[in-house]
Design brief:
Elements lengths: L5 E4 L5 H8 L5 E4 L3 H8 L10 H5 L4 E4 L10 E4 L14 H11 L6 E5 L7 H14 L7 E5 L18 E3 L4 H12 L6 E3 L3 H32 L3 H8 L21 H11 L6 H10 L1 H15 L8 E5 L15 H9 L4 E5 L5 H8 L12 E6 L4 H12 L2 E9 L11 E2 L1
Parallel strand pairs: 1-2, 1-4, 2-3, 4-5, 5-6, 7-8, 9-10, 9-11, 11-12, 12-13
Helix pairs in contact: 4-5, 7-9, 7-10, 11-12
């Protein structure tokens, strides 16, 4: 294990923290196909905000490159590229297959390839291994070996960093499984869990977020029911939470790179073997529909309050998929924006955490630098950024007309300070 020279393929939210942590004790080459990303990292700049400038200064054995041939000096490759879904909610493994092919061109006899990207059970050996075999002309478990250790990075969470989260590991042979487990054990303070097979590790990852997705879907459905009954959802949850074993989930938008995506990988696999998932897909339908529900609820409330819809303006506060984080991958705030816009309502999106260029290039959303004063008929607090909590009701009312609606999706304000809550 001591002679392993690590090559990290993909330097986003997962790959960069991994590269920096490994580079504290061994040589690491971090590769990313995005040249601008590499240029920024070479200057100690991380636009994901996961790493600070001081983190870069703590490592001397880390090299960044956008030349795949630079990885030929490595003998252990860790692939951390994104695995999203298509518009049809099918797995999109194009980045993963591309990375597998690239690594195959620099692979040498005896090298190890470890995958961290989320996939369905069996995908590593069914999809990635054949690509590597073809490109490298090496035989699986003879010329090269494979492992799977699913990422558990939680963007924006400064309390649970890479080394603080137990790492699931696995390998294509018992010996390789031990090597991989020891490798991660060298940087993970919280310890590791060695799975019995690659498929078990893949399945463990995909159900972690599927479980959360289903639980949140239940609470979202309850929130819809309680809204119709006229009961405050948070009050119900607080009352129920007085029982020791009640799980403290809250309603909300389910976006991001994991919870809103991973279940589709599992349902795809299930359908491919002839089983039609019921509960998982039901939860997905509920959570994917929450943006539309919020928008319609707001427009109805505005109309009932005597606000002229055709001449109205709405401020959406927050665009990232979660609080105190710039990540806008699969943000469900977009659904709110699109639905409200269809009514002919003017919509401004404000988020101090999000790069405006990213929002424009990815979603064609022109974000504002700051809200207008006394301009908006309604505001939606969509993301619970600290900056928004600090504003409070008085700060938010500065942006509002005298007749207004405040829709608090995140319980940022007191119940009495908003007109609508989830």
């Amino acid at each position: 294990m001591n002679n392993l020279k690590i090559g990290i393929v993909g330097l986003g939210y997962v790959g960069l923290p991994l590269a920096i942590e490994f580079a504290k004790t061994r040589p690491v080459i971090g590769y990313d196909c995005n040249k601008n990303r590499i240029d920024e990292l070479c200057r100690g700049i991380d636009t994901t905000l996961e790493m600070d400038e001081c983190d870069f200064k703590c490592v001397e054995k880390l090299e960044f490159s956008n030349d795949i041939n630079s990885l030929s000096k490595c003998n252990c490759y860790i692939i951390t590229v994104p695995t999203p879904v298509t518009e049809a909610k099918q797995p999109d493994m194009s980045a993963l297959t591309s990375a597998s092919h690239m690594v195959s061109t620099v692979l040498s006899e005896g090298d190890i390839v470890i995958f961290e990207s989320t996939v369905y059970p069996g995908a590593t050996e069914e999809i990635c291994v054949p690509i590597i075999e073809t490109g490298s002309k090496l035989k699986y478990n003879k010329g090269f070996y494979v492992g799977y250790s699913p990422e558990r990075i939680n963007p924006g969470d400064k309390g649970h960093r890479l080394k603080d989260i137990v790492k699931v590991t696995s390998g294509s042979t018992l010996e390789i499984a031990n090597i991989i487990d020891n490798l991660y054990s060298s940087i993970i303070s919280a310890g590791t869990f060695k799975a019995s097979s690659i498929a078990v590790a893949e399945a463990a990852k995909v159900i972690e977020n599927t479980q959360r997705d289903i639980n949140i879907a239940l609470i979202n459905e309850l929130a819809i029911i309680f809204n119709e009954i006229g009961i405050d959802t948070e009050e119900v949850l607080l009352a129920a939470g007085s029982k020791w074993n009640f799980l403290p989930f809250r309603p909300g938008l389910v976006g991001g790179h994991c919870i809103g995506v991973d279940p589709y990988y599992l349902t795809y696999k299930a359908q491919s073997i002839g089983y039609e998932p019921q509960m998982i897909l039901a939860g997905r339908r509920i959570n994917d529909g929450m943006g539309s529900y919020v928008a319609k609820k707001l427009v109805k409330k505005m109309s009932m309050s005597g606000i002229n819809i055709s001449n109205s303006n709405v401020l959406v506060m927050g665009f990232s998929f979660k609080e105190n984080c710039p990540d806008i991958r699969n943000t469900k705030v977009l659904d709110i924006y699109n639905e409200i816009s269809e009514y002919g309502i003017g919509v401004d999106v404000f988020d101090p955490w999000v790069n405006a260029k990213d929002a424009l290039s990815l979603y064609k959303i022109k974000m504002i630098n700051s809200p207008k004063i006394k301009f908006y008929d309604a505001v939606i607090i969509a993301v619970n950024h600290d900056e928004f909590k600090q504003l409070g009701k008085d700060g938010i009312l500065k942006f509002m007309k005298n007749k207004n609606i405040i829709y608090d999706l995140k319980y940022s304000l007191n119940k009495s300070d908003s007109n609508l809550r989830l």
